[in-house]
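Two records follow; treat each independently.
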Amino acid sequence: MTYALSKLLTFEDFITQYRDNPRYELADGELIDMEPTGPHEAVGGKLATKIGVAITNAQLPWFIPRTCLIRPLADAITARRPDIVVLDETVLLSEPLWEQEPVITHGRSVKLVVEVVSSNWETDYARKVEEYALLGIPEYWIADYRGLGGVAFIGRPKQPTFTVCQLSGDDYSQQQYRLGESIISGILPNLELRFDDILPR
C-alpha cells in the first residue's frame, strides 16, 4: 500500500521520521506500508534462524542486522527495508552512513537479501530484482509462501514458490523451488533448508 502524501519525502526526512519503524520503506519519495502480518513474520523469523545457523557453522564474518535500510541508488529517493539482510562485517567501514545510521549504500557490503512476499508482490518480483542486481548483491531470495506472485513469475498453477536469484554478470539467474524441495544457495552451500521448514503453522 502506498500512502498519498501532500509532498514527496526526501531520503533524509524518511530517515528522521521512520528509521526505527520496520513497517515502512521509501520508493521514489513515496511512503510504502509493507503490511506485515503474523504469518509473514513467522516465515521471516524461521528463515533468519536457518541462515544464521549456516553462517555460524561456516564461521563467516557475516551477520543479520536487527534493522537495516538499503539505499539502492544515491540519487534516488528510495530506501528499501528487506525482511532479511546478511552483511559482511569486514567491509562496513567503507559504508558512509553506517556509523550514524544502519543504512547500506554499497552492494559489496551485502551478501544476501531476502523478501517474504506479501500483497505488494510486484515490487519483490520486478523492481527489487533490478535494484538489487544493479547494486551487485550476490544473492536475492524471494519467499512467496502463499503463491501470490503473478503467473509470469511463478507459473501455473500458482503455488508456494521460493526463488533464488544469483548474480551472473549484471543480471540475476533464477532458480525456483517448490514444497518438498531442498533449496540450494551459492553463497551458503552448507545451508540445510526446505521451503516446508519455514512455512507458518
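The next record belongs to a different protein.
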Amino acid sequence: MRERTIASHFARAVLGGARRHGYDYSGLLQQLGISPELLDEPRARIAPEQFTQLIQALWLALDDEYLGFGQAPSRPGSFAMMCHAVIHCRSLDKALNRGLLFYSLFPGAPRLTLSREDEWVRLSLDDSQLWDPDHFLSESLLVIWHRFGSWLIGQRIRLEQATFSYPRPEHGAEYDLLFSCPLEFSRGQSSLLFHSRYLAMPLLQDERTLKHFLERSPADLLSRPDDGDSLSSRLRRLLSRDSSRWPDLEAVAAHLHISPQTLRRHLREEGSSFQELKDQLRRDIAIYHLGRADLSLQQIAEQLGFSEPSAFHRAFKKWTGLTPGAYRAQES
C-alpha cells in the first residue's frame, strides 16, 4: 500500500523549536528537497521519508530528541538507550513501566504515567510545562509510546479513547490518522486509553530486531500514520490494492456485504465520505510518483483514472494548492 503523505502543518510545526533556538534550517530544507513554498501552502503534503529525514536531521542539529519543545533537552541516543533497557522485559507491562522510569530519571523530562481504570489502562502525559504551541511534542510522545508498545508485542494496541488537554487544533482532521479512536479535547489531561489485556502480552522483539527498528525510529513511528480499525482505513486498504481500477461506491459496498446507504452513513459518522477517501488516496499516489519522476504527468493521470491530464491538473491543485508540474519542480 502506498504510504500516506504528511500534512505540511507537521513540517512547519517541527521547525518551531529550531526557530526558537535560532537555528537556520534553510540549508537543511534545501538538502532534503523541501521548498519553503511547499511549507507555506496549508494544503500541501510531503512524503513520509522526507519527514523522517527532517526529524532525524533536526535531532542532530539541535542536539535534542525533544526538538526544542521540552523544559530540558533529551540528548540524541536517549530513546535508543531506553529501548535497550526494556527489550529483555518479559511483558509489555514491565517494558512500559521500565521505559517510563528511565525517562523519569532526567530532570525536566515530560512526565508520563500508567494508571489502571478497572479493565482499562490509561497512559497520561503532563504537558503543562512544555513549550509546545502547536502541540507537536505532546502528539509525538503519545504516538511514539503507543506505536512502540505495539511494536514490542507484534500487534497493534487498539485505542479506545484519546484525550487532549487543549482545544481541538486547526489540524484536528489529521488526528484520525495519528490515533484512530474516539477523540476528546479540552480535557484535564492528554492521554490514551486501552485494554489492560495487552499488558500481560510477552515481548516478541529482541536485540536483533531492535537494531533494525532503531535505524529509523522513533522518527519512523511519527511518519507512518496509524491504519487502525476504522471503516475509512479498511476502505483505503481495499482501494489501494489496485489503483488502476477504481471501483465505485456500489461495488465497494457489495464487496463489504452492506448496502450503499449503510456504507455512506458509516463513513459520515467517521467524518468522511467515499469521494474524500478516494481523493486522498489519489493525492498520495500522485505525490509518490511526482517525487520519484518514474512516470510522466500523463501516465500518472491515467493511473489515477483521469480521462485527460487537464482534469488531473485541476484536481491536484485543489488537493494540494500546487499544480503537478510545480510540485515536481520543487521536489527535484
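Discussion point: The domain at 230-331 is CATH 1.10.10.60 (Arc Repressor Mutant, subunit A). How would you locate this feature using only the C-alpha cell line?
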